[in-house]
Amino acid sequence: MSPLSGTSARTGLLRTLIHVMAGIGSLAVAGMIVVTVADVTGRQAGLPVPGAYDLVRVLGAVAMACALPLTKAVKGHIAIEYFFQKLDRRGRAVVDTLMRLVLLALFGGLAWQFGRQGLLFRDSGEVTATLHMPMFWVPWLAALACLVTAGVTLWHLLHPGRSMMRPRG
């Protein structure tokens, strides 16, 4: 097995994780819409959705965390290009590399902290206010999202100038 075939398999796994997380995030957004509409219309009939606030809050956190890897993979983030474009090609390459190294460290550190927070939530029995739903898994999902985002950042660092994925129109 050549080193390139292993790289291709890792890239395929990374892309699969990105798509799975994007799917989970999409379902979370749809869930937020359903819960909100059901709660608003239910209140009109005197039947609000119990725990709607808890559900929307948790689904919002899931949606944001799961959107990170795809946003990074398609380079859908906000970029301030004014000063960057003033640099020559070599300067842009140096700044781009340094920023990717910083992001790699940042997302690695966030994954570590989210993982620790999930352990603390699990050990303390942290639950939502009204539904008493366990919360430990939310930071763990955020930790996974940060790890996948760090993987995307590493891929971009190792493949400068190449696009990992294209946004779907």
Radius of gyration using CA atoms only: 20 Å
Q: How many distinct helices?
A: 5
How many strands in all? Answer: 0
Low-confidence spans: 1-5
Q: Which structural category fits the helices and strands?
A: mainly alpha
* Helix content class: over 70%
Biggest β-sheet description: none
The topology string of helices and strands comes to HHHHH
**Terminal residue distance:** 36 Å
Counting structural domains, the number is 1
Shape: elongated
Short description:
By secondary structure, this protein is mostly helical. 75% of the residues lie in helices and 0% in strands.
Explain the layout of strands and helices.
Layout: H1 3-44, H2 52-73, H3 82-86, H4 89-124, H5 137-158
Helix pairs in contact: 1-2, 1-5, 2-5, 4-5
Describe this structure in words.
This protein is mainly alpha-helical. The chain has one domain. Helix content is 75%, strand content 0%. The chain has five helices and no strands. The protein has helices at 3-44, 52-73, 82-86, 89-124, 137-158. Helix 1 (3-44) runs antiparallel to helix 2 (52-73), helix 2 (52-73) packs parallel to helix 5 and helix 4 packs antiparallel against helix 5 (137-158). The longest helix is centred in the first third of the chain and has 42 residues, at 3-44. The radius of gyration is 20 Å and the shape is elongated. The two termini are 36 Å apart. 21% of the residues are buried.
Key attributes of the depicted protein:
169 residues; mainly alpha; 5 helices; 75% helix; 0% strand; disordered N terminus
